[in-house]
Amino acid sequence: MGKLVRDKIPDIIRQSGQEPAVTVLPEDAYRDALVAKLFEESTELGQASPDEVTGEIADVYEVLRALAAVHGHDWATIEAVAAAKREERGAFRERLYLA
Known about the structure:
Layout: H1 9-15, H2 27-47, H3 53-70, H4 75-89
Helix pairs in contact: 2-3
């Protein structure tokens, strides 16, 4: 079973002397693969050591940017919507947990 990888991964594999089996996904399968990748990267973030957290957040961020693009949204729009939600509902800074 395969998985979605960053664009340069096949070239990196080729540089090691191997030939990867690569498929370009149709748009609907790509969206599904991005959601699966978000779950994968979020899980890795949850399991990351303190030294690994920055890299794992960067991976989640990259998947989110790709998801925004595949749905026709630019990142500036996503940031504006996030800012509006923060203004209306707050952020997650106060560590509030509703029981």
